[in-house]
């Protein structure tokens, strides 16, 4: 993999993932694309541009994307992200430019003009933009590098319904397009992300770093900690969206298993459920599911990367 596109719906944990990628030496960040998800699309786009400005990375274009899922009405996860998507951060009007054209077109253009397999796409929200890109350009799936996604639930059940994780539930039809496209997909679902938790000590470690990006990350983690206490009654919120980015930077932090992942699109009861079939031939399997993550290792990577910047 040489370069990366991040497709996201910031979103508190999306924002932390962006800061990790903005500060990372590799892979090269080609673009950020945004989608309606945790909050509506005009806010996720603004939020990504705010984070870009705080990180001093105006060199990275931000493209706005789909306002609604392929077939379902738009959902939202404001409880966990605050009404504007970034917890209690004070919103401001960012100055950096907005990329020309919708996210799906940008994904097609950026991937198709580079060598096959060289561009990874990290999807940290509903998969609408990537599904639209695949519909627009049939050769995209075979030209793409790995698609690394935060999404899916298996062993402990879901976080939005008994069966489903929010990103897949929000646009199950788009997820079915991506998982069914034949491209390589590595999924970081709740089995893995629930092992990466922002404990008090880990938040304090970020708070010792005296830069604007680190201060922003610390404020986002504190907000998540308060929300987790109120909504779930636990002390250490899971840090979902940085996981796929951390894997691209340091694969040893995760244990992956070859599989085939299919998404329930029909049933109202189990909509967005990810059926993860491990009885596959590892030599030909196109999907991998993260079964374990080293939580401390992911936080060490985050703090070291923020410090190095
Ligand atoms: C996912 O849902 C969103 O609320 C988070 O940003 C994350 O991408 C976790 O289920
Ligand atoms: Ca997200």
TrEMBL record:
InterPro entries: I/U_nuclsd_hydro_CS, Inosine/uridine_hydrolase_dom, IUNH, Ribo_hydro-like. GO terms for molecular function: purine nucleosidase activity; uridine nucleosidase activity. Gene3D superfamilies: Ribonucleoside hydrolase-like (3.90.245.10). It holds the Pfam family IU_nuc_hydro. Keywords: Glycosidase, Hydrolase. Residues 4-281 form the Inosine/uridine-preferring nucleoside hydrolase domain. One of its GO terms (biological process) is purine nucleoside catabolic process. GO terms for cellular component: cytosol. The keyword Thylakoid does not apply. This is Pyrimidine-specific ribonucleoside hydrolase RihA. It comes from Brevundimonas mediterranea.
């Amino acid at each position: 993999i040489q370069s990366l596109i991040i497709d996201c719906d910031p979103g508190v944990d999306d924002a932390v993932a962006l800061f990790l990628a903005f500060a990372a030496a590799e892979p090269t960040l080609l673009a950020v694309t945004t989608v309606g998800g945790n909050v509506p699309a005009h806010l996720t786009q603004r939020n990504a541009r705010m984070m870009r400005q705080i990180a001093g990375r105006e060199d990275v274009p931000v493209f706005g994307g789909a306002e609604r899922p392929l077939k379902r009405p738009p959902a939202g996860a404001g409880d966990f992200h605050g009404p504007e998507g970034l917890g209690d951060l004070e919103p401001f009007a960012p100055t950096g430019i907005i990329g020309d054209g919708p996210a799906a077109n940008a994904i097609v253009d950026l991937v198709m003009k580079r060598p096959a397999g060289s561009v990874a796409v990290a999807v940290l929200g509903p998969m609408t933009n990537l599904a639209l890109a695949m519909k627009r350009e049939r050769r995209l799936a075979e030209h793409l590098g790995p698609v690394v996604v935060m999404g899916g639930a298996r062993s402990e059940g879901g976080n939005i319904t008994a069966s489903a994780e929010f990103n897949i539930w929000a646009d199950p039809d788009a997820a079915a397009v991506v998982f069914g496209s034949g491209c390589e997909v590595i999924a970081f679902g709740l089995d893995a992300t629930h092992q990466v938790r922002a404990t008090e000590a880990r938040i304090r470690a970020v708070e010792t770093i005296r830069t604007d990006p680190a201060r922003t990350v610390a404020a986002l983690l504190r907000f998540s900690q308060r929300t987790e206490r109120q909504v779930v009654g636990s002390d250490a919120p899971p840090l979902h969206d940085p996981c796929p980015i951390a894997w691209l930077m340091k694969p040893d932090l995760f244990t992956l298993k070859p599989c085939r992942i299919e998404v329930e699109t029909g049933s109202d009861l189990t909509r967005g459920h990810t059926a993860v079939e491990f009885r596959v031939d590892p030599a030909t399997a196109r999907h991998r599911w993260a079964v374990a993550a080293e939580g401390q290792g992911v936080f060490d990577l985050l703090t070291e990367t923020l410090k190095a910047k």
